């Protein structure tokens, strides 16, 4: 009796593979013979809108990604440029300050060259103002020069614009300068006009401009006249500019007339000064120093 051989069953996945392989072979044969052209055209027509949508979506995704990259690049570049602007702003401010200081130095040097008969600490002693007066009633400045630099009490202090005041107190490396705008300051002055030359005393006034007192009633004084030191009294050298007359106060029954003087020095913006070191005031304490002491 013959025994029959057992038959091997092909799994379901195997049948699916055979079917797909057969269909693929048939489609390749039909495509190569041109018989699939109508079907391919129909499928292309049906799929074209979907392909367009997919392409549009892809382009938008690319655009968004490109925009994000550009924004990141722009932010980085903006930070770099802002840092550069900040650096240039600081450098520009420093340059402007340096130019201002250089201009002030040149003006002080020119003043020294125009006044060769004064000794400014070997030709050029420039003192930076380091603080304002310690009290409300004292119009004074502190400068960074003292006895170690040869500064003494009573020495005149000037800028290229005119008289600032005189040294009041001296320390080893700093000094206090009493300004001509202080009520305790008194400067023997003169009108610088050929047909006038009237003399008087310029004193500071609390809360207002200095005045020139004790001007003879008959003296010719007018607004616009230049006021300089007269050299009388021996406390200041002659010819230092003090200011300009802006108003004349005169009454017939007074013995003297008075002139309001606008100083040529801008005390609110004062940064550098010169100390005249070769002028020696007459022996005795100056009146303004007695008043303050």
Would you mind describing this structure in some detail?
With 293 residues, this protein is α+β, with helices and mostly antiparallel strands. It has two domains: 37-114; 126-281, Thrombin, subunit H. Helix content is 36%, strand content 26%. The strands form two sheets. It has a six-stranded antiparallel β-barrel with strand order 1-2-5-4-3-12. A six-stranded antiparallel barrel has the order 6-7-8-11-10-9. The longest helix is centred in the first third of the chain and has 78 residues, at 37-114.
The succession of helices and strands, N to C, reads: HHEEEEEEEEEEEEH
Class of secondary structure makeup: alpha+beta
Count the E strands: 12
Mean pLDDT: 77
Determine the CATH topology of the largest domain: Thrombin, subunit H
* Corresponding CATH architecture of the largest domain: Beta Barrel
CATH class of the largest domain: Mainly Beta
Low-confidence stretches: 287-293
**What portion of residues belong to β-strands?**
25-35%
Cα(first) to Cα(last) distance is 150 Å
Largest sheet: 6 strands, antiparallel, barrel
Rg value: 48 Å
Number of helices: 3
Return the domain count. 2
Strand order of the largest sheet: 1-2-5-4-3-12
- Please estimate the helix content: 25-40%
Q: So, the CATH homologous superfamily of the largest domain? A: Rod shape-determining protein MreC, domain 2
Name the shape in a single word.
rod-shaped
